[in-house]
Amino acid sequence: MRLVHWLSFLLALLALITVVTVQAVQPAARLAVPGLGTVPLLWVLGLVFALGFLAGWVYLPGYAWALARERRAWKRERARLEAELAELRPRQVEEVPRIPDRPVPDPDEAGA
């Protein structure tokens, strides 16, 4: 996703440099637009910039929604893993480990 952000930043920077260059070389530049005749180049570029800005506003809520959905999934997974860990933890640690094939020592004999 970072690559998309960097690419969009570089494209916007390139468009800005192009606009500044064209305006410096030919300030009265006009562009033929079907159905509208000729319009100033800055109007067309402003419209394109505005459409790109609106597209970014459409992209942003979708990206935020995907992040929120992913966060909820991570929280569910974390809760599941914590419950599993709590279940696997021993409730009480034996002070003296007992070897399974030997008899359990009598507490009365141990104290005598």
Textual characterization of the structure:
- The structure is a single chain.
- The longest helix is centred in the middle third of the chain and has 48 residues, at 41-88.
- The protein has helices spanning 2-25, 41-88, 107-111, and strands spanning 30-33, 37-40.
- The protein has one domain (12-90).
- With 112 residues, the chain is mostly helical.
- It is rod-shaped, with a radius of gyration of 34 Å.
What portion of the residues fall into strands of 2 or more residues?
A: 5-15%
- Parts with pLDDT < 50 across at least 5 consecutive residues: none
How would a crystallographer describe the biggest sheet?
2 strands, antiparallel
Strand order of the largest sheet: 1-2
Helix content: 55-70%
Number of helices: 3
Instruction: Please state the average pLDDT score.
Output: 81
Total strand segments? 2
What's the number of domains? 1
Shape assignment: rod-shaped
Q: How would you classify the helix and strand content by structural class?
A: mainly alpha
> First CA to last CA: what distance?
71 Å
**Rg computed from alpha carbons, rounded to a whole number of angstroms:** 34 Å
Please provide the ordered H/E string of secondary-structure elements: HEEHH
